[in-house]
């Protein structure tokens, strides 16, 4: 399952990334393999989404969230 498929309030554990360039950016922001992520909010039109990871809130575009594979 991909992060972009979760609904508000659902959680998952980061397993891997599908985009190498994006993975470096996401890992610098604390979105590491093994970290739990929770979807906090989704914008009215579905993009961007706000996730809670590593103790803070991070906003991602749907395209960016779709590169994160969850366990």
From TrEMBL:
SUPFAM superfamilies: C-terminal domain of transcriptional repressors. Keywords: Iron. InterPro entries: Fe-transptr_FeoA-like (IPR007167), FeoA (IPR052713), FeoA_core_dom (IPR038157), Transcriptional_repressor_C (IPR008988). It holds the Pfam family FeoA. One of its GO terms (molecular function) is transition metal ion binding. Residues 1-71 form the Ferrous iron transporter FeoA-like domain. This is Ferrous iron transport protein A. It comes from Mucilaginibacter ginsenosidivorans.
């Amino acid at each position: 399952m991909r992060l972009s498929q979760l609904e508000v309030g659902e959680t998952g554990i980061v397993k891997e990334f599908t985009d190498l360039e994006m993975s470096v950016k996401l890992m610098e922001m604390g979105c590491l393999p093994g970290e739990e992520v929770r979807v906090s909010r989704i914008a009215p039109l579905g993009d961007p989404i706000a996730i809670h990871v590593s103790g803070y809130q991070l906003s991602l575009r749907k395209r960016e969230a779709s590169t994160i594979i969850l366990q």
